[in-house]
Automatic annotation (TrEMBL):
Residues 3-121 form the Gfo/Idh/MocA-like oxidoreductase N-terminal domain. It comes from the Bacteria. This is Gfo/Idh/MocA family oxidoreductase. It comes from Rubellimicrobium rubrum. GO terms for molecular function: nucleotide binding; oxidoreductase activity. Residues 135-255 form the GFO/IDH/MocA-like oxidoreductase domain. The keyword Oxidoreductase applies. The keyword Oxidoreductase applies. Belongs to the Gfo/Idh/MocA family. Keywords: Oxidoreductase.
Amino acid sequence: MLRAVMVGCGAMSNGWLRAIRDTETLSRTVEMVGFVDLDPGLARTRADEYGWTQAQAGRDLGAMLAELRPDLVFDIVVPPARRGVVETALNHGCHVLSEKPMATSLAEAERLIDLAQAAGRLHGIVQNRRWLPGIRRARSLLASGALGDLTAVHCDFFIGAHFGGFRDAMEHVLLLDMAIHTFDAARYLTGLDATGVYCREVNPKGSWYAHGATADALFDLTSGATMTYRGSWCAEGLRTAWEASWRVIGTRGTLLWDGNEGFRAERVAENEGFLRAVEEVEVPPLSEALTEGHAGVIHDFVEAVRLGRKPLTPGTDNIRSLAMVLGAIESAETSRRVAIETLKEAA
């Protein structure tokens, strides 16, 4: 069993705790020994309602880590508090799995990467879309080369989400709080990274957000491909999936994907004619069973710790998705194209 402390016991902690409690491979390998929150009463409530009644609850992370010496810290705090939590956990010899975004700036993200390397510990980031059947199937099709070389990716995200609370007052609310899921999914789907972006942000009439509820972005990708993103968090009616809807174009065909498990793919079947004849392409099924969503992320991270390997979403990879978000925000603020620098991979 790996012993874990959770930091941040608000509403988002429920998804993590359900995954740990209800997923057999996690319930057998993770023991929650501590819960930390600015509200110690909330920390105690979370521990008790999910059955970890013997776990400690409090508000002082450093003191709890010094006393309990856990293997893992699960970091679910608000982004401005993330750096302090991750630094404290790494300094106490813990591996850390954080909610997104991994940092509030690239400099801060690079510092956390350096700290994790110096400590010899893993720092992973939750990008739960990578553990959904649809993206795994779409990725398999693209990797097979059936559609040729990738030339363009188009992503649409339109949902009227009435959260209330802190999101209503956020700046760049769509880009900062949600778009990273689509950006990271695009990187995972294609194996490509962004090299530049032009983005326009608007807070349209009728928006219940204070700032930046819609955005349109054009990314340049490695290999010369491009990516467009059209998104809105105040679009009522005809919602897309939370995973967005996609058109992925290759030199020999196109994939339409609804973000869940709805697919349609065609490729050219002849090499002559004004409009070339096309044929349907089957999107392959999953090759093996998949632990999905948050449970999949946590399970992968736990196994990485147990087996001494990298998780699928370490900070060294996730910084590239964060760079897309921060680049889009800078472009929206300056009304110019922003170059996204190549970020060094850790050894």
